[in-house]
Automatic annotation (TrEMBL), chains A, B:
Domain PhoU residue range list: 18-103, 122-204
SUPFAM superfamilies tied to this protein: PhoU-like (SSF109755)
Protein name in UniProt: Phosphate-specific transport system accessory protein PhoU
Keyword Cell membrane: no
Matching Pfam families: PhoU (PF01895)
Keywords assigned by UniProt, alphabetized: Cytoplasm, Phosphate transport, Transport
Lineage: Bacteria, Bacillati, Actinomycetota, Actinomycetes, Pseudonocardiales
Subunit organization: Homodimer.
Coiled coil segments of this chain: none
């Protein structure tokens, strides 16, 4: 019985890891749609979001049935609850990739990004997708050290995000208010995506160590 | 034993209702700090956020101990899980009020808002605080119809948010890019706050009816 239970927990972890992979791909494609003003790719991300929502529902239902049928305690209970929280964060990451894709679609065929901020978004895309892929590995390995190291990647995202603001706020900004508004919101979508990836990883630390490293909902209020 | 359990669930609901009241007050004060460029009130919201975080931890710990000690099933299980999700949303609402207060502090003694958008924020503040207060009543009464009606208030917030964007994006906007960036982010904070309030209420519907009315993490991607 215990063995069957732990194999069920393993299935739940697999579902979460698969969700990480889905949201990493969504953000990778959304960033490409944004950088290349590619409508086909944007549409692909937009229509793919439903699958991420379904994956979250499936995770949550699986977690619920584990709780109802097995009534786990201690670490097992915390693992299931962490999975429920992680699934919520992952669905949110999918929504944020969706917002990026919708921004690309809204301005198509015009590019959303002025040339002088394209590099920031290429980098934000690269680092945030990497964060989601690392979170996938962390879920599979329960590697606490790797989870802690994600904070460094998140710091990179926060730095990029802050730099981006100095560019928009600079008197030299030539691209007008509507473009600044787009860039402001897009920057925030990437920053929130990274925060959620870190929160997923922190939940894994919590499961392994029984202690939560800091708040899981911190974000930069810029 | 069952009776003791239901009285514990009642305590959990009280904790959530108290959190609603805390985040309603935080947003009310943050909005006042924003509209009046009042540093004292902004600081009050900023230093008060820790209490909201603590209230969330207390809710979550209480919910965990209910799960571990009582191993609830069916509706009771869903109630406890809904409470865990609701506590997370409420902490997030506190963070969003905190962001509004920090924006007021960052620009002090200058006002953050140009005169032509002050009215929007007065109204956003009024409606979002009302949403949180209604969510409090809904948690206490488990009133499904009232929970559904919150969608209408959320529509009001979405409309205000969209109108705000047309004002910022208009060629007549005289206040420059930095001000547009501030207003963009502030608008989003209120819009997300309202979404979370609705999500709290939807969880209550779920507990009562066993069916979730739509996705709980939808937001406007403007």
């Amino acid at each position: 019985m215990r063995e069957a239970y732990h194999s069920e927990l393993g299935v739940l972890a697999d579902q979460l890891a698969a969700m990480c992979s889905m949201v990493a791909e969504a953000m990778e494609l959304a960033t490409r749609a944004l950088l290349d003003a590619n409508l086909t790719i944007a549409e692909q991300v937009i229509s793919g979001d439903e699958k991420i929502d379904d994956a979250r529902s499936a995770c949550e239902e699986h977690a619920y049935s584990l709780l109802a049928l097995q009534a786990p305690v201690a670490t097992d209970l915390r693992t299931v609850l962490a999975a429920i929280h992680a699934a919520e964060s992952l669905e949110r990451m999918g929504d944020l990739a969706l917002h990026v894709a919708k921004a690309a679609r809204r301005r198509h065929p015009a590019p959303v990004l002025p040339d002088d901020v394209r590099g920031y978004f290429a980098e934000l895309g690269r680092v945030t997708v990497q964060l989601a892929r690392k979170a996938e590995v962390i879920i599979r390995t329960q590697d606490v050290e790797a989870a802690r190291a994600l904070e460094d990647d998140d710091d990179v995202v926060d730095d990029l995000h802050r730099h981006l603001f100095t560019v928009i706020m600079d008197k030299e900004w030539q691209h007008g208010v509507p473009s600044a508004v787009d860039v402001t919101l897009l920057g925030r979508f990437y920053e929130r995506y990274a925060d959620h990836a870190v929160s997923v990883a922190k939940r894994v630390v919590f499961v392994v160590t029984g202690r939560m490293p800091g708040s899981v909902s911190e974000d930069d209020d810029l």
